[in-house]
Structures are given as structure tokens and as C-alpha cells.
């Protein structure tokens, strides 16, 4: 991060302010961990922070400290808009383009206050006054740890803030398995554990707290999986009817896409999930090695993300979407 930007942010935070903190739509562990970690940090420094999520976050994240304070824009647009319009400073975390917040974009685009972006995705847009954007990091939470250190406030990181940061690093690193997990990542984790973060409890809260319906939905997704061996690709589908039959709730499909990569010889995997309410097929892509799913998602499915993890969407039927995907696979080198 630029020295002059750090100095400017220090000056902004030198007096108490009303601050809004925003994750992307459909927030995951890194988005919620980073926004709530920043929330507790700002609260500790006498500010008035509010986390406003564009929509609801998954139930398996509702134990994160401060989750009960998060405002949901879709559920109370009038109140959230008032908070945004009264804010003196806006932080956006774990996304770098305003369209990632859905309907809230229209409100944010009108605001005249400084924006601070902290994010690790590719090709950032230029809406922010101050940017800490670095694709070499595996999570925004790891960047938040650095950001607090840049402000010479590392001593403010306590067990509560550390728990939030640990959660985002753990989830976005694939439990420390993804390539951007570095020695520095592990040193940060060690520091957080020394602060009292319960590293043996958090994985259980995140990954071992499934409903029976969620396990049944996983079973159906695995039954639906198709493997295209000659193209090192696996993909699966879930229709709206299948989601409904297993009493699907937000977050139940989290992580299912990764199962394809557990198959020997598979480098590229995807999941296609029907959403009749939004009239789209939501898509998640994952890869191993050199295959760039971020570019694939940008080129073909109006999406983007990281080199090995990205998302996209399709506005045609599931059958048409799958046909398009299968035809594309035949034309690219994986």
C-alpha cells in the first residue's frame, strides 16, 4: 500500500467518525471475517462503524463476533441507505467493483465521501479514493492484518479481531491448501493463536455443523457430477427443484464445487446452480495449476475472481448453459 495513502487514512481515522463497512453480495468467510474484523478494530478506536451486507450471509457464519450487528441492505433498504448517506468514510472489503454489491451500487455511486478498498481480486475498478489491492494474497483477511499493522495499530489486534481474521484466512485458503498460502500466512496464524484464537474450535464451527438436508444436497450434487476425462474437467448441477427438495438454505452449496478437484487427473471443475427467483444459473469455477478460471469466467460467463477460483452466471436455461460449457471445454487447452 502506498505510504501517502496510509498517512491519509491515519489522518482520517485520527478523529471519531461514522464509518460504513461493506462486503460483497453473497458474503463468504473472508468477506464476513474481514468486515467484522475491521468493525471491531474501528470500534476499539472510538469510531461508529456499521457493517452493511448487500444480502444475508450463510448461517454457518453467524457465530463470528459481531455478526448479530450486521445490517442487511435487502431487508431494510431505507435504514441502510440512511446509514450510508450519513457515513463520513466507506470501507469496501473483499471486492473491487461496485456491481458486486447488487442493488446497493446505486446508493454507493452517489456518495461523495472517501472510499477505502481492501481486496485481493484481479482488475480493480477505480471507485476508491485509497486502494490496498494485491492479488498475491490468498485472502482479504490477511491483508486486513497488514492494514492494521500499516496504521501502527498491530497491538490492537486481540482475540476478537483475531478470530475474525483467522476465519477469513482459513476459508479462503482452503484450510491452508491453496497456492497463495505462504510462510507469512502461517506466521500470522501463529500470532493469532498466541492471542487466544481458538484454532481447534473454528474449523468445527465452519465445516462440521451441517444439517441433514445439507448432506443430502451434497449427495445429490455428487450423483449429478459428470467427468470429462479427456479434458481434465468435472462439473455438477443443482436445479431449483433439487434445492427445494432438501430444504436448501443460504450457504448449503458452499464448497461443493471443490469435490471435483479431488478426482485423480481433474484440473478444472464447476458447479451450476439454478436460481429461479433471479432467473439465472449461478456458476462457481475452481482449478489447479496454470488453468486460469478467472479469465474463463470473464470471457464466457460474465464473471471473474481469482486465477484458481472464480464465479459467473448464465441467463439462459440450465440445459443451454451446460451445452455452452461442454462446447467451450472442447475448444480450450487445460
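^ C-alpha cells above, recovered residues below v
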Amino acid at each position: 500500500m502506498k505510504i501517502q495513502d496510509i498517512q491519509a487514512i491515519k489522518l482520517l481515522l485520527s478523529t471519531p467518525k461514522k464509518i460504513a463497512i461493506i462486503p460483497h453480495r453473497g458474503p463468504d468467510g473472508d468477506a464476513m471475517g474481514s468486515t467484522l474484523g475491521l468493525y471491531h478494530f474501528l470500534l476499539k478506536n472510538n469510531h461508529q462503524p456499521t457493517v452493511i451486507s448487500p444480502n444475508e450471509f450463510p448461517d454457518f457464519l453467524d457465530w463470528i463476533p459481531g455478526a448479530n450487528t450486521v445490517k442487511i441492505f435487502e431487508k431494510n433498504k431505507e435504514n441502510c441507505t440512511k446509514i450510508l448517506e450519513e457515513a463520513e468514510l466507506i470501507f469496501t472489503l473483499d471486492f473491487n467493483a461496485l456491481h458486486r454489491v447488487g442493488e446497493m451500487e446505486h446508493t454507493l455511486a452517489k456518495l461523495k465521501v472517501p472510499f477505502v478498498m481492501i481486496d485481493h481480486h484481479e482488475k480493480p475498478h477505480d471507485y476508491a479514493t485509497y486502494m490496498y489491492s494485491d492479488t498475491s494474497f490468498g485472502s482479504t483477511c490477511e491483508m486486513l492484518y497488514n492494514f492494521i499493522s500499516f496504521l501502527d495499530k498491530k497491538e490492537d489486534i486481540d482475540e476478537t479481531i483475531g478470530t475474525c481474521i483467522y476465519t477469513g484466512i482459513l476459508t479462503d485458503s482452503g484450510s491452508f491448501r491453496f497456492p497463495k498460502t505462504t510462510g507469512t500466512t502461517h506466521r500470522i496464524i501463529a500470532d493469532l493463536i498466541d492471542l487466544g484464537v481458538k484454532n481447534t474450535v473454528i474449523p468445527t464451527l465452519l465445516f462440521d455443523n451441517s444439517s441433514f438436508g445439507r448432506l443430502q444436497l451434497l449427495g445429490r450434487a455428487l450423483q449429478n457430477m459428470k467427468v470429462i476425462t479427456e479434458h481434465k474437467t468435472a462439473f455438477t448441477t443443482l436445479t431449483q427443484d433439487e434445492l427445494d427438495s432438501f430444504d436448501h438454505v443460504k450457504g448449503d452449496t458452499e464448497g461443493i464445487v471443490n469435490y471435483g478437484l479431488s478426482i485423480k487427473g481433474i484440473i478444472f471443475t464447476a458447479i451450476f446452480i439454478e436460481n429461479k427467483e433471479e432467473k439465472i444459473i449461478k456458476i462457481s469455477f475452481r482449478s489447479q495449476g496454470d488453468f486460469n478460471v478467472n479469465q474463463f469466467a470473464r470471457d464466457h460467463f460474465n464473471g471473474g475472481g481469482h486465477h484458481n477460483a472464480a464465479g459467473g452466471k448464465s441467463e439462459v436455461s440450465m440445459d443451454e448453459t451446460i451445452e455452452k460449457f461442454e462446447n467451450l471445454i472442447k475448444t480450450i487447452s487445460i
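The domain at 3-206 is CATH 3.90.1640.10 (inorganic pyrophosphatase (n-terminal core)).
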